[in-house]
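Two folds, back to back.
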Amino acid sequence: MPKSAKQCAAMRDEMRARILRESLRYFARNGFAGTRVADLARGIGIAQGTIYRYFDSKEDLFASVRELVANGEDVRDLKLLARLPLPAKAKVRRLSSTVLARLADNELFADSVVLNTQIRLEEEPGADGRPAPYRSELYALTARIVEQGQREGSVAAGDLLKLADYFWGVAYLYALKRLFTAGYAMIDAADLERTLLKGAR
């Protein structure tokens, strides 16, 4: 029995999502320059032409992967967390435990952290001379929690974005370890909390 138009559309959507997921993984491990569409297609187990059916070029595919990373679950959760009526100390603890749990359990999350950081590090500094990561929504939302914590006296003093950078820099390091090493020792949430909180255990 032939597939309905709705079934065909669902299959196309699933294939596009699969290509994006696998491309995220591949770009995170090999970088943009080190990624060849032929190798990517072989790794996914599809024909190279299938990728070009959904994306015009490697650049178009990479732009879609970047959009996926920029609007990922971690950013959505952080937006929600930043708005919750909780003390900043509780927010930092929740953020730390969530990030580490996802790094431990979800390789795709580790890929997202690595690729997002690599993209930001390759961008030019802004007009204000600040590094590109400081312009990311992830940093801005983390800085908002840091600012709240400094007002409440629970978060270390210092530049908001530098402290956000320190927190995500540690997360990036452990995302790299998750992807590229076997048998690495993972920090715990209390270790990650210490990047921001005063007197964290």
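---
second:
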Amino acid sequence: MRLGTLLKPLLINFRKSHQQDIEIKGIAFNSSKIEKNYLFIAITGNHNDGHHFIQDAIKNGASAIIGEQEMESLAVPY
């Protein structure tokens, strides 16, 4: 599924129009479960903050990230 299609109900505006064409093959909030072309969801939990694992998710193949905090200068759309 394309990222734009997946996120359309959330009314997200993409900074760059080509970002909405990114292919997403899966979704995970655990960076160790990320595979190539997955969407990583970074959430702040009671024991861990997923934002601390964003770089791990990117190394594991995440093609886009959704998070709760402001982030810049990532290698993939956020």
